[in-house]
Structures are given as C-alpha cells and as structure tokens.
Amino acid sequence: MVYPSTGADLKGLMKAAYYDPNPVVMLEHKGLYWSKIKGTDDAKTIEPDEEYIIPLGKARTVITADDDKINAGESMVIITYGMGVYWSKNAAKNFEGKIEIIDLRTLYPLDEAAIFDAVKEHHRALIVTEEPYNNSFAQALCGRIQQHCFQYLDAPVMVIGSENLPAIPLNTTLEFTMIPNTEKVSTVIEKLLAY
Q1: Using one digit for the tens of pLDDT, what is the confidence trace for 142-194?
Q2: Rounded distance between C-alpha atoms, residue 33 and residue 88, angstroms
Q3: What pTM was computed for the model?
Q4: Average pLDDT, rounded, for the chain
Q5: 85 and 101 in contact (C-beta within 8 Å)?
Q6: Most CB within 10 Å of its CB: which of 58, 70, 83, 181?
Q7: CA-CA distances (angstroms) from residue 26 to 38, 92, 120?
C-alpha cells in the first residue's frame, strides 16, 4: 500500500508496483494534483530518471533537524505521508531547526528502521495523517513506536488526524474544519516540544 507525496514518488512507486508480484494499492490526495492547495508547490517535481524506481518500504527524510537542537533535546520527528508532508513542512517553518520529517511513502511494507531510528534520535514523535485518528493506521503506528522505543521517549507519541466523522464533507469550510492543516499541526508541535 503506497501513498506518494510528490510527482516523482508517484512515478517511482508506480514502477515498483508494476514490477512487484503482489497486488499494490496506490492512494493519492486530490489536492496534490497540479499542487492545487497553497503550500504544496513542492509536490511538482521533475522526473529524476526514465527508470526511476523507489523500493517499496523505503521512507525518505523530507527535512532534518539541526544537530545543536537535537543535542539540546529541543527536536522532534514528524512521521507522515501524502498531504501530511505539506501540513508538516509548512508547520515546521515556525520551529526552525527543531523538526525532522519522515515521509513514509509506503504504508505497507513499512520502513520501521527509519521510524525507530528517528524516534530514538529525537525522543519525541508526532504522526500526522488525514484519516480519522480513532482506530486508525496512525494509532497502530503510535503503539508500535511506544512498544519498540519506550525507553527513548521524553513525551508520549502524539497523533493528529481528521475528526471522527463518517465522510469528508463537500463544503470547503466543513472540510477545513474536519481535516488537519498547518495551524493544527503547529499547535500539536508546540505542545509536544514543551512537554
């Protein structure tokens, strides 16, 4: 199960899906098409190579925190995918040098090594997802992180997702209220860094 956040990732994951002998489900966020939503210009990417393939189960680091902030215990990692990458990236501008963002790209198989290494380095983690957060993939990932990295955590692993409603409304005001956005992510980052 893959969820790209850039055009290049879309191509690389689609080619990997083509060559994989198993069925692959590809999820996409409609707001990333032609970067329709403000703050998603980075989704437009140049094709890296005609034969560009991303191995399934390999996350990428979008931005890294500064070493001095990491050593001072003032950093955290955000684990996300799809549109969450842009909510997180825009929110990170308010916390310069304190945020590392990992784009999962593949929800299954999951790059647990990248996730656990980042959590052990920063001691704080936030999972940003668009799905309703109750009984979700993000909550399951939160549990895995706490199970495998508990002794490294300085704060609880937090999850931000959509409100628990049965469907995303068509009304743009209601949709904005339901799903995460940069401001909501910034609020949770601030809370987690102050923990």
Answers
A1: 999 999 999 999 999 999 999 988 888 888 888 889 999 999 999 999 999 99
A2: 18
A3: 0.94
A4: 93
A5: yes
A6: 83
A7: 24, 27, 30
pLDDT of amino acid 82: 94
Tokens, residue 12: 């690389």
Do residues 108 and 67 make contact, with C-beta atoms less than 8 angstroms apart?
A: no
pLDDT tens per residue, range 86-119: 999 999 999 999 999 999 999 999 999 999 999 9
Q: What angle do CA 4, 67, 120 make, to 5 degrees?
A: 65
Residues in the chain: 195
Show the domains of the chain with their CATH numbers.
60-193 (3.40.50.920)
